Amino acid sequence: MSRTLAASSPSSGTGGAFWQYGPEALLTRLDSAREGLAEAEAGARLSRDGPNEIGETARRHILVDLLHRLANPLVAILLVAAAIAGFTGDLASFLIILVVVILSTLLDMVQEHRAQATAAALKRSIALHATVLRDGDPIELPVSAIVAGDVLQLRAGDLVPADGIVLEANGAQVNEALLTGEPYPVEKRVGPDPDASTPAEASGAFFHGTSVIAGTATMLVVETGARTRFGAIAQSLAAAPAPTAFERGIHKLGMLIARLTIFLVLFVLLAHLALGRPPLQSFLFAMALAVGLTPELLPMIMTVSLARGAQRMASAKVVVKRLSAIHDLGEMDVLCTDKTGTLTEARITLVGRPGIDGEDDDRVAELAAINARFETGLKSPLDEALITHMTGRPFDDWTKLDERPFDFERRRVSVLAEREGERIEIVKGAPETMLALCSRAQDRSGDLVAIDEALRSRLIALHDERAAQGLRLLGVAWKPAPEQDRIGDADEDGLIFAGYCVFVDPPKPSAAEAVARLEAAGIRIKVISGDAGAVVEHLVASLALPVEGLLTGEEIGKLDDAALAARVDTVDLFARVTPDQKVRVVRALRARGHTVGFMGDGINDAPAIHAADVGLSVDGATDVAREAADMILLAPDLGVLADGVVEGRRTYANIMKYIRMGTSSNFGNMLTMALASLVLPFLPLTAVQVLLNNLIYDLSQIGIPFDSADASDLAQPRGWDMPGLVRFTAIMGPLSSLFDIATFVLLLKVFHVDVATFRSAWFIESMATQILVIFIIRTTGPAWTGRAHSALVVTAFGGLLAALALPFLPFAAFLGFAPPSATVIAVIALLVVVYLLLSEVMKRSALRRTT
Ligand SMILES: Nc1ncnc2c1ncn2[C@@H]1O[C@H](COP(=O)(O)OP(=O)(O)OP(=O)(O)O)[C@@H](O)[C@H]1O
Ligand SMILES: [Mg+2]
Predict the structure, then answer these.
(1) Portion of the chain with pLDDT greater than 90, in percent
(2) Last residue of a domain, one of 504, 531, 564
(3) CA angle 492, 496, 502 (to 5 degrees)
(4) Which one of 612, 636, 660 terminates a domain?
């Protein structure tokens, strides 16, 4: 049983690692059979061993989360401040600080948990599946339902979902780079491997997290979930994506604010002490300032904005796996895509089968179809088209002896087959590769002729003519293989050329419009295909895609990284490239400073999807491609991608609104406070009032993620723009300070109010200017033309009302407020209106684009 087996790791000394046992021994130990488990037994094992998952650690328990948040330095400062206030008998400060801490922590927690739940639900909707034998029949199950003893059918493109051993293998090659660092695939065959001491040596074993890149295999599952050897590593690698450029920018900004805050707080504290103000209150005031100046809501606003973006994208049929990829999507200025299945339908049909004289010859299609039928690796749509074409014309009299599966370096498939004692090797693949391997050709009557220069150029011309019409071609060749049971390494040339199979692969109807929208949105489209140059050129022409330049894999092979980087900007088409070269092109583009998206569906695309800033895949793609991707398009319509880009930019625009609001009002407050500390004979606000101010301001901002964005924000890729932000802050911050100071002067010199009234009036002025300015700066156009989202209107005016009401409430005195007179309120209202008008004028230059 799996329990005992789980205990018998090499270190426990009770036996060897599982791969040291043969299939029969393990089948007995796991109480399973080659036909798999019975459904009931599998169910029992699932409830005993738990689901085949590792990710659960990612979710913290709610109490742990709470503790984590309370350990945050800002909260700690507040709690210390509350304790000091409590000891000195300042009950109001004590209670209010506690309320502020509890409210803002809860707000943060609830919002973030909801955002995470949304993201997790979206992820579940695209969970991986595996083919499992249950009660003897192959069924598709989510990988989480796999248990020890299950028998799985793996094929090229699948991720290995658990640890286990090979029961059968057919040309199965697995990429184990994750465990061994070895980029080349290793061949899997039936074990045992009694001498293998490490997983890398165990060629009869499969490990969770590796991927099948060629062939097929049957696997017996031995360990699942956290008990797998490398699952945990794979998970942690996948879980820590590098921060995006946007996140790095925000982090830098955060550090800058933190430094300024410390500086200001020390300044204010020292100034007050030097001027002989009461030390305790000065200290509390300084602490409250520190809290008020920190954009503590920023992480929450970001998560909520991203989760909302992800939700909206999901309703537009784009599932986001990595939330922060939404920033990258909004910033993306180059989209690389492969061709089949992304730009085209991938519903391919055979439309021609010319022999060497250019006329259709059924024998060509038949040879190709035999090859396609016996091919066990990744069945491409080309294979399906060949098999469909031959329906009704059975080739049951052929038997298969051996195969060399397709891989993207060789670009061909070889099959050794036999009929009535006649053995031949049939090869089909990329035409130029095939021609290079052939020395003879077969004509219509079956006679063999040598391929001389004249014939070779006729064959090339035949190919080029069809390819220029956008048709895809495969070359087909064969050779007699008497007495042979295997395809040896030396059997790769001396082939007899039979002819071409010609296919159509029409572009998706939506593709032309979608690429036009993407181009209009400032995104350059580049096609990176394993197919021939002429085919790719024809396709982009039919999509009316404005592209220039063409580089082939052969040419890329001759360029080093620097030379390639020098070319990628001016070349939009890449043909006959290998998977490795797809990655090189993506890296070269990134090195040129582009934010690069890569969209693909095959095993050959997965490394490039991973290397891009935004990896994109489609619903029908292979597991490896889907796993590597950050986002998955569920609809065949490429238009959803253009919608997704808009969503990414809107999310970015809303986060920027919050950041602009926060930094400029903070900077303004800093200036005001520094000045006030020097000239005012008392604290401009009590610590409690500063905290209340902060809390209400935060609450008023919660509606921002729901807001719409300017058309101009959506029209072009947008990245982190630090100079723009600095300029905005430098203009808008001092403007708000100016009005704060005007308020001071009026209150003290004209109205001669007492301290409590002063604080109430200034509290109202400061809240009103900070909150209302969102309606000015949410758009670059005139503020009155666009309508803010009702959620934003509700939170903003709710905050404003709360601020206005506080000094008039029965417990106002408890908070240190006294109600200002109607005249004072009227004057403040006037000031606020003038401030907003001036902001409307100044924002033109403050919001001007630098990028
Ligand atoms: N099953 C197959 N049998 C023989 N040759 C194949 C097979 N599949 C692909 N090829 C050859 O390998 C080439 C590259 O494969 P493929 O077109 O899938 O690459 P790709 O980069 O994904 O291209 P695309 O942009 O069309 O998706 C094909 O153009 C074809 O010549
Ligand atoms: Mg492809």
Answers:
(1) 39
(2) 504
(3) 100
(4) 636
DSSP 746: I
What's the gap in Å between 342 CA and the centre of ligand 1? Answer: 14
Ligand nearest to the CA of 621: 2
| Ramachandran angles phi, psi of 564, nearest 5° | -65, -45
Q: Calculate how far, in angstroms, residue 102's C-alpha sits from the geometric centre of ligand 2.
A: 53
By alpha-carbon position, which residue is closest to atom 31 of ligand 1?
Answer: 430
Q: Classify residue 79: in a domain, yes or no.
A: no
Residue nearest to atom 4 of ligand 1 (CA): 429
Counting atoms of ligand 1 from 1, which one is nearest the CA of 377? 1
**Residues 335, 354: one domain?**
no
The answer on 616 and 719 residing in a single domain is: no
DSSP code string of 609-668: HHHSSEEEEETTS-HHHHHH-SEEE-SS-THHHHHHHHHHHHHHHHHHHHHHHHHHHHHH
Determine whether 338 is an active site residue.
Answer: yes
Q: What's the 346 CA to ligand 2 centre distance in angstroms?
A: 9
Q: Which domain holds residue 449?
A: 349-504
Nearest CA among 610, 617, 616 for reference residue 590: 610
170 lies in a domain?
yes
Note whether 514 and 499 are same-domain residues: no
The 10s digit of each residue's pLDDT in 235-251 is: 555 555 667 777 788 88
In a domain, 107, yes or no: no
Shared-domain flag, residues 703 and 781: yes
Condensed to tens digits (0 to 9), the pLDDT of residues 775-785 reads 998 888 888 88
In a domain, 731, yes or no: yes
Gap from CA of 250 to ligand 2 centroid (Å): 37
- Of the candidate ranges 145-159, 285-299, 576-590, the one whose mean pLDDT is the lowest: 285-299
Mutate to test the pocket of ligand 1, among 371, 382, 540 (most ligand atoms within 8 A of CB): 382
Residue from 108, 158, 338, 707 carrying the catalytic annotation: 338
Kindly report whether the global pTM for this prediction surpasses the value 0.90: no
Ligand 1 cavity residues, CB under 6 Å: 338-340, 380, 382-383, 406, 411-413, 428-430, 474, 529-531, 602, 604
Q: Which of 210, 214, 223 is nearest to 180 (CA)?
A: 210
Number of domains in the chain: 4
42's enclosing H/E stretch is: helix 39-49
Residue 625 structure tokens: 């491609």
Mutate to test the pocket of ligand 1, among 529, 599, 601, 616 (most ligand atoms within 8 A of CB): 529
